[in-house]
């Protein structure tokens, strides 16, 4: 007892002795060295002038903010891997030693006579060893852990969307800093000779003032004009000198490291960036790709899983356990044995709190949905504002460029008359400074215009890089950035407009209701021959290249004899020989690839419940602008109730679905081999 008491007292005294300890000078120096080893890590050498694409590629690869977000994604991924182990049962191995200073003896009482036996007995050794290997599994905890793992999986996706948002912001900053650095490179070379000339004129003015060659007031005004001109030039230098350093910091270069900038051609400096995307297309692209909206969508998944977790906690817990045990007690008949059992427990108070728990969870889901919808409106507003700012700056750039051209021509005239001695040197200097300021204003407005262009890209959620890349070396990154920046407008133009997306579900519901009424009025037809449904990744109808075929009429003109000889005779289309076909309309998409991706998500979500159901891609052209719309449908249902159950499961996963009935003519048109195209 004495050693145990001394040990406990020592530990207690050590715990009470804890006090704040600041970093020592050696620890602080070691921290700085470690951080500098990461911050100033060697990069790929700068062997040539840096273009804008390479600057963006270097920012993606070496920018520290991007590295932080990549580490957050890695941490979230590791957390997901760790949470998967929570679903496993607990297997605990234990070993111990038990001892006492005397025997664990006892007497017994005769219940019939109420007398003690008077004999002291023991059934336990003074010193014994124990060990066990226990298996425990709580079924309810397994369900909760499974939902927590799903939430962590969505947290990985959220971390990746935050990384995308940081990359998009870095790309905007790099574009702005690059064009300001270009303006600095172009004008700082012209600034030094003008400053030198103004400084010489100021010395001459002071000499003339000292010699009293001119009137004192005239000489002072002349000197003041020169000083004001020199102040303007120094203000220009201060505004431009930091642009290149900012670009280097964004690229992750050590402060003060020299590098050259690849100057764009003169034609590019005079031409603003082109934005050939309609605002409606940018709106849809933003709603589909903005990281903030996708993050809120993943938050909605997390909230839905949290609702299920809350409901699972209301259920009774079922514990299943088994163990292998050992005890060295010599009085035991069996020193090694196995035991097993099961236990169910239920907190009945949960039945009272169940309605409140469910209401709270549903309110949380609605809050996330409302927040995403409000953010959608904010995104649409940001797209409109970004496009308006770009258009306004484009007009301002045109006026600024015209003013710079006029000031350049005026400077030429002042130079000519100055050489002829018709004006003084001050007028020539002021014309040169004015032309220099106009050129600077034009280049800065061009930089602001490129910043507005980048803001449009950020508001639309444009990624400069593809989802997957073969390598992450700098040349590959540079090529990928250049390709992404040159092709994003084409991708944005390929999506549906917001009005079309909003009208598509309503149109599908009206068509389904109309077709249902029509088919209900028809007499029952014989059962059609089974037709093999096309799998999701094999073919799409030929309507992708032309409008949907018109219904077949009874009195059709006979084909030419040559055509009859070339092609086999086709069976006539009889409307009464086919019964209706049930399909589920899952929405309209701008391309086959997007529809295929959506079907992959639905099929993965349904799992075995979707066996026997196949996907069809029906493509048509809109009459307004000729754009292709791919309608994703599911078929292979036994009856309409099966299709409605399928739609109910799809709607549970936050997707639209409506049941439609295909007429016999539509069925025959879809089954013709000539109406199929090769798979994309």
Automatic annotation (TrEMBL):
Which molecular function terms from Gene Ontology are attached? efflux transmembrane transporter activity; porin activity
**InterPro entries recorded:** TolC-like
Biased composition of type Basic and acidic residues is found at 507-527
Q: Where is this region: Disordered?
A: 106-125, 506-555
Task: State any GO CC term.
Answer: efflux pump complex
Would the keyword Nucleotide-binding be found if you checked this record's keyword annotation?
no
* Localization, UniProt: Cell outer membrane
Keywords, A to Z?
Cell outer membrane, Membrane, Plasmid, Transmembrane, Transmembrane beta strand
* Top-level taxon of the source organism: Bacteria
Query: Which stretches are tagged as biased composition: Low complexity?
Result: 535-555
**Which SUPFAM superfamilies does the record associate with it?**
Outer membrane efflux proteins (OEP) (SSF56954)
Main site of residence? Answer: membrane
Which protein is depicted? Uncharacterized protein
Species the sequence originates in = Azospirillum humicireducens
């Amino acid at each position: 007892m004495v050693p145990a008491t001394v040990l406990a007292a020592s530990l207690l005294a050590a715990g009470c002795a804890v006090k704040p300890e600041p970093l020592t000078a050696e620890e602080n120096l070691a921290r700085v060295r470690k951080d500098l080893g990461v911050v100033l890590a060697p990069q790929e050498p700068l062997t040539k002038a840096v273009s804008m694409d390479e600057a963006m590629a270097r920012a993606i690869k070496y920018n520290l903010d991007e590295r932080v977000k990549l580490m957050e994604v890695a941490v979230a991924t590791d957390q997901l891997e760790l949470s998967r182990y929570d679903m496993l049962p607990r297997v605990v191995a234990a070993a111990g030693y038990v001892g006492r200073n005397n025997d664990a003896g006892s007497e017994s009482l005769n219940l019939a006579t109420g007398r003690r036996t008077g004999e002291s007995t023991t059934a336990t050794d003074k010193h014994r060893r124990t060990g066990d290997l226990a298996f425990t599994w709580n079924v309810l905890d397994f369900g909760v852990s499974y939902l927590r793992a799903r939430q962590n999986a969505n947290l990985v996706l959220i971390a990746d969307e935050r990384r995308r948002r940081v990359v998009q912001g870095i790309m905007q900053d790099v574009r702005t800093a690059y064009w300001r650095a270009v303006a600095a490179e172009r004008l700082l070379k012209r600034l030094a000779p003008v400053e030198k000339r103004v400084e010489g004129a100021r010395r001459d003015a002071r000499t003339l003032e000292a010699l009293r060659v001119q009137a004192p007031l005239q000489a002072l005004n002349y000197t003041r004009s020169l000083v004001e001109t020199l102040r303007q030039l120094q203000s220009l230098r201060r505004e431009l000198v930091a642009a290149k350093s900012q670009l280097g910091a964004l690229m992750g270069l050590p402060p003060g490291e020299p590098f050259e900038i690849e100057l764009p051609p003169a034609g590019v400096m005079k031409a603003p960036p082109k934005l050939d995307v309609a605002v409606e297309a940018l709106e849809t692209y933003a709603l589909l790709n903005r990281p903030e909206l996708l993050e809120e969508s993943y938050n909605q998944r997390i909230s839905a899983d949290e609702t299920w977790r809350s409901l699972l906690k209301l259920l009774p817990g079922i514990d299943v356990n088994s163990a292998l045990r050992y005890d060295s007690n010599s009085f035991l008949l069996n020193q090694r044995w196995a035991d097993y059992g099961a236990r169910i427990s239920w907190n009945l108070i949960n039945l009272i709190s169940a309605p409140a728990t469910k209401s709270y969870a549903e309110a949380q889901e609605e809050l996330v949905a409302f927040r995403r919808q409000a953010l959608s409106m904010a995104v649409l507003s940001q797209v409109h504002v970004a496009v308006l700012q770009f258009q306004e700056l484009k007009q301002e750039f045109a006026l600024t460029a015209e003013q710079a051209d006029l000031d350049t021509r005026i400077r030429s005239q002042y130079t000519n008359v100055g050489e002829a001695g018709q004006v003084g040197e001050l007028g020539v200097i002021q014309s040169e400074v004015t032309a220099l300021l106009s050129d600077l204003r034009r280049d800065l407005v061009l930089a602001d215009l490129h910043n507005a262009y980048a803001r449009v890209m950020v508001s639309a959620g444009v990624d400069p890089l593809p989802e997957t890349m073969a390598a992450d070396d700098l040349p590959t990154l540079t090529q990928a950035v250049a390709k992404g920046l040159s092709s994003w407008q084409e991708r944005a133009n390929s999506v549906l407009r917001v009005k079309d997306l909003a009208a598509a579900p309503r149109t599908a519901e009206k068509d389904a209701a109309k077709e249902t009424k029509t088919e209900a009025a028809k007499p029952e037809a014989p059962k059609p021959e089974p037709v093999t449904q096309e799998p999701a990744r094999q073919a799409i109808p030929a309507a992708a290249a032309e409008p949907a075929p018109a219904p077949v009429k009874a009195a059709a003109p006979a084909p030419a004899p040559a055509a009859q000889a070339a092609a086999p005779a086709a069976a006539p289309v009889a409307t009464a020989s086919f019964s209706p076909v049930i399909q589920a309309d899952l929405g309209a998409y701008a391309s086959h690839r997007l529809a295929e991706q959506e079907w992959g998500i639905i099929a993965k979500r349904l799992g075995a419940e979707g066996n026997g159901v196949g996907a069809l891609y029906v493509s048509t052209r809109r009459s307004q602008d000729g754009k292709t719309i791919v309608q994703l449908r599911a078929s292979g249902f036994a009856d309409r109730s099966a299709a409605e159950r399928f739609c109910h499961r799809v709607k549970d996963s936050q997707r639209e679905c409506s049941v439609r009935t295909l007429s016999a003519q539509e069925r025959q048109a879809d089954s013709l081999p000539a109406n199929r195209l090769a798979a994309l």
